[in-house]
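Hello,

Our lab assistant flagged a job as stuck in the queue for most of the afternoon. It eventually completed. Since we weren't sure the result was trustworthy after the delay, we are filing this so someone can double-check. Below is the sequence as submitted and the structure that was eventually returned. Let us know if re-running is recommended.
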Amino acid sequence: MTNESIAPTSVESESASPADTIGRIDAPATATTPAQRLDDDVVVAWIGGSDLELDGRSLPSAVSARSPQIAGRSLTIVADVTIGPLPATIRDRVERAAVRNVDALIVPLSPSWLTWNGHDDCHGLTPPHAFYSCILDPAPGTDVTALRAEVADLIDTIVETGIPAYLYVIPHSIDALTDPLLADRLASLDATFTALDPRVDRVTYVGHVVTRDLDRISEGVEFFDMVHPTPVGVERLADFFAAQLPLVLRLTPN
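-- returned structure --
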């Protein structure tokens, strides 16, 4: 299922306070004012899964409501959400966004892409962290090299579009990041993502779980589970992303 929404913005946002930052990038990207007139919006395709939108809660919409600007221009955020996407699905969505001539891309990266081949052995496991631990522990016969290659292919596709992009590993609760069932595995997958950094000037790449540096994003308050934010969590994450986008999206003249 795919859900697309367009939410224009017009008012410059306030910066997040230090307590609300998540692995914050403090120095602006080397952005220049694009050749279009300043009254033309920057069109950003935010492409991902249920960590972006679920049950009426939308992180892209909450960011739009904060009205960030980039290089003096307002944002129009196009949310392209597929529930449970694999890298190939996201790659297809990136290619479609490129055909539509968007100005920038935002793509969350899921650790499960590096470990899970779609098998059903993990479903029904409780508590929830046991399910996620199963997802992050490759089943016998899983070709993890092939899974990594699929993620690398997605990243290559993003680079080949030539469109400025912001890639980050999806937010996780502090409970997941500190659970002995998950902590070492997530840290190892962070290292794998870091190794996939394309090191391209127009791409800002955060190869670790983006909430690692944030104090207390807790299940039961900001998150329902490991990766799905509550309404409170959506608002807190939106504060961060609204402040970050002007710093991380490296627009160039066209």
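-- support follow-up --
The delay was a queue issue, not a problem with the job. The result is valid. DSSP finds seven helices and nine strands in the chain. The first helix runs from residue 59 to 65.
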